[in-house]
Amino acid sequence: MTTTATTPAGARPRAAIAAKTLRTDRWWLAPLLTVSLLVLWVAYATVRAFMQKWYFVSDYHYLTPFYSPCVSKGCTAEAAEFGRFLPDWPIIPFAAVTLPFLLLFRLTCYYYRRAYYRSFWMSPPACAVPDGHRTYSGETRFPLIFQNAHRYFFYAAVLISIINTWDAIRAFHSPQGFGFGLGNLVLLVNVILLWAYTVSCHSCRHIVGGRLKHFSKHPLRYRAWGFVSKLNAKHMQLAWTTLGTLMVTDAYVMAVSANWISDLRFIH
Amino acid sequence: MMGEVRNFRVWRGDADGGQLEDFQVEVNDGEVVLDIIHRLQATQAPDLAVRWNCKAGKCGSCSMEINGKPRLGCMTRMSTFEATETVTVTPLRTFPVIRDLVTDVSFNYQKARELPAFAPPAGVAPGEYRMQQVDVERSQEFRKCIECFLCQNVCHVVRDHEENKKAFSGPRFFIRAAELDMHPLDARTDRKDLAVEEQGIGYCNITKCCTEVCPEHIKITDNAIIPMKERAVDRRYDPIAWLGSKIFHRDQLDRPAGHTTTGVATAERPASSRQPDAGSPSTPAEHAASHQAQGEISMNWHREAPAGQAAPVGSDGRLPVTEFTGQMAGAQSPFGDDVPLPLPVDDINYQHPSRTDEG
User: Fold this and answer.
1) Contact call for A213 and B256, based on CB within 8 A
2) Where along chain A do its domains lie?
3) Strands (E), chain B
4) Which of B55, B85, B102 represents a domain boundary (last residue)?
């Protein structure tokens, strides 16, 4: 009998296409931008974390998020809201208690993973562009299997966001008592966006309701899940904007603290 | 309006090799790449092989790579290219080539067969399945899949590493796994482990190319793969979640609805028709009376179901990919090939309207 069917017969070769990729658009632009911006940000953050000065404006109680909570013995007494217990060594950032968790929260974030796997690790650099590695085991083995711990860093990030919120509230301050200036707006916008980034996390979406099988039995968790899902769709945008606001907030506090600019006050 | 002539490069060849061939071909307003491939067949390359069917982005047949990007030929408008641009069309890279633009996608069928199907909940009879829209909404997104396999093709885990094909099922089957794991009535509780052990979800590094190429705009990564990864974390990598599920019996969250909410459809036999233990009916009249009684029971959901017939798998332990490679002409019976039709009346769970004529 004649048949037009293709009988599966062992391993057959793929199409012998010589070009590694036939993409004609600028697929390299996105990974290039990611690398440049992340390197720039990490460089800035590293310098600032170890600078150990210009982190606090005592008149207005502005504390930069890079030094919050300020728990080193080297901290200004007014800035240390949570006690001072870390030794004052130049290699230990004043906020060494929280900075590693923030770093790990972003390092294991599902969005940042996409960003750095594509740009730094080239696995793959862009869709339908060959992976730069001979073998590949994904996140199945040590050390990448620890990406699964993302939810723990999410819990830590929630605690740190509470501390940042406290800092933003404490900053409504002037030498005479209550005060409100441009710096407060900067700190507020930063802390609101930090919350939005933290809450939009994929692990958070899972924890508040994604893990359920029956939304109908948990109406409140379903509503919370719906809210987080909406934010979650913007997780990438929030990941980048919060890097921006963190840098701007820190730079503003640094500039006011170093007397390069003076804070614009609305209420003294 | 007369069309203009555009440059095309199409990969021609088969398993023994091939190359890109240049064509100059007329392109008219409103046309898509598949139209141009058809014009090439009609005018310059009558033996050009291409798989296609609906021309409306709903059958998933005309998957190809256009200027290096996995796309549906019928959904890629020619107006998206510059007039001077050469359009390069190649077959899907991840799968073995059969000829020209046609590839052998049986990898996907094999992976589909490896995924356990929907498991009906115990204690809930067919016809008694009740689900609320909010509970099935998430799964419904994944039902939009047209199985074009563009996501399977673009995924670098298998595209760039042929050796991973054995361990890795690919995005299309992660959405299937998520669909079933989120299904309110699915009775299996091991789908999270299966996703890790059998499907290799750990290989995915969430670079989101599957989502980028999906012609149905399914949020494969955000709504299926990451939730499945998180569900696997609950089960395998999170000691606190594990402990919590033991202490608060939160593992019941995974149980299908039938266990707790939907009452079992108990077919209470009316007292008036309750018969003494008379053994099996022997006379036609008793038959009729017995059938009448069964009719009053309405539906006997708890009748002994006949044992299923083993699937006619080949030497590799798998079902044949098509009926052409199978033992039988025609498709298998969805009822099982050992089930005689019409069914014996004692085996059916409803009153057949023709039964009144039997007596």
Assistant:
1) yes
2) 29-267
3) 4-14, 17-27, 63-66, 69-72, 87-90, 97-99, 102-103
4) B102
Domain containing residue B59: CATH number: 3.10.20.30
The verdict on B24 and B157 lying in the same domain is no
Measured between alpha carbons, how far is B355 from A122 in angstroms, rounded to an integer? 70
Q: Write the pLDDT tens digit of every residue in B229-272.
A: 999 999 888 888 778 777 776 554 555 544 433 333 333 333 33
Q: Which of B102, B135, B156 lies at the terminal end of a domain, its last residue?
A: B102
The answer to whether position B307 is within a domain reads: no
Domain residues for B177? 106-258
Instruction: Find the DSSP H helices in chain B.
Output: 33-43, 106-114, 133-142, 150-154, 156-159, 171-181, 191-197, 209-213, 226-232, 239-247, 284-297, 355-358
**Chain B CB contacts of A206 below 8 Å:** 226-227, 230-231
Give the closest-approach CA distance of B279 to chain A in angstroms.
45
Number of structural domains (chain B) is 3
Give me the interface pTM, i.e. the ipTM.
0.92
> pLDDT for A108-159, tens place per residue?
999 999 999 999 999 999 999 999 899 999 999 989 999 999 999 999 999 9
Peptide bond into B46 cis (omega under 30): no
pLDDT score at B125: 81
